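Today's session is about reading a structure prediction critically. Students often jump straight to the picture, but the first step is always the sequence itself: look for stretches that repeat, for charged clusters, for runs of hydrophobic residues. Only then move on to the predicted structure, which in these notes is written as discrete structure tokens rather than atom positions. Here is the chain we will use throughout the hour.
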Amino acid sequence: MKVCVVGGGGREHALAHVLGRSAEVVVTPGNPAIPGSVATSPEEIEADLYVIGPEAPLVEGLADRLRAQGRRVFGPGADGARLEGSKAWMKELLASAGVPSAGHRAFTDPDPAVAYLRSLAPPYVVKTDGLAAGKGVLVTECLADAEADVRDKLSGATFGAAGERVVIEEGLTGPELSLLVVCDGTRAVPLAPAQDFKRIGDGDDGPNTGGMGAYSPVPVATPAVVDLVMDRAVEPTLAALTAADIDYRGVLYAGLMLTPDGPKVIEYNVRFGDPEAQVVLPRFASDLADLLGQAADGDLREPPRFVDEAAVSVVLAAEGYPAAPRTGGRIEGLDAASAHPGVTVFAAGVGEDEAGRLVTAGGRVLAVTGIGATITDARDTAYAAVAEIHWPGVQYRTDIAASAATAERNRS
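Below is the predicted structure for this chain, in token form.
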């Protein structure tokens, strides 16, 4: 099978890496560190399966255009991609399907939005309605900060058109969980759960990012919890999409909060998470190309299998990220990092200088994934490789999966 992966970030590198176990893979546009990258449009590539990685081309209807040409595609059409393209629409669908979620209201005018904020108890949650590369969410205990964020977003000052409508939600408490689910239009199968780390700094300090690391499996996400999420959230959502004549064939990313009242959906995304993909996909024991092909055909047959080993991924970001990342720094130490047993380095925001050397070209630059028998082992493996990599101003969290590793050691 020849598979075309659309995108050029760490998620697409992870997809290509695991798909490549059983298929020939080409990645467009890719990046200089992803093997098989070609700078052309997916319509110009002849492949047996097209896997669309990022959310923006899905929202813009790339899957629809490819299917109209008779291509076999894993990724929802523009109608299904509204789950991520409009948070307000997603919340309305959840409410109609009876899916547990945070209470919310959507606003385009700052004055009623601020009045609603003042009626809530902290933490305050303010989201852009449109796409914001994972950075359009503010969660704060400070009402003044929340009010300022609402006004900045609605004015277009911070996120342009994506923020000209905001969704304000009640704050939820509990462990967060990411569950990626593969859908074929009528059926869905869950992948291994993961947990990611959104804030830039250790101890969950600082602004939200696209994700600074992740680990899988997640001890609190027992099979019973996964079954509950499928029963109360995923299956009703898929049924609501079907009732709306939306044939959803792709991955459904459920961002969840395990509250004292049970799991609640924080958000849905319509693509593999990043950095969740970098810990979930390497643990695949099944044939990923076959699974995604089954979903594209509307013919899912059995759940995938995963290895027992754990995976921990640490994101290395450019200086100044997320507000104003500085690019052009020469990346050193990749060969030494990749030589560590159990390590894979996935490339995202990278480019080349005039001499063909890899340099930073985005905010999140690399994701270093370690595999080990336990979360502790995987974490130690990842951070040993991280220590090999350098460029001016490199930043990363030092506490990815630290609490999970401590809890694991205490249980043993």
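Discussion point for the tutorial: The radius of gyration is 20 Å.
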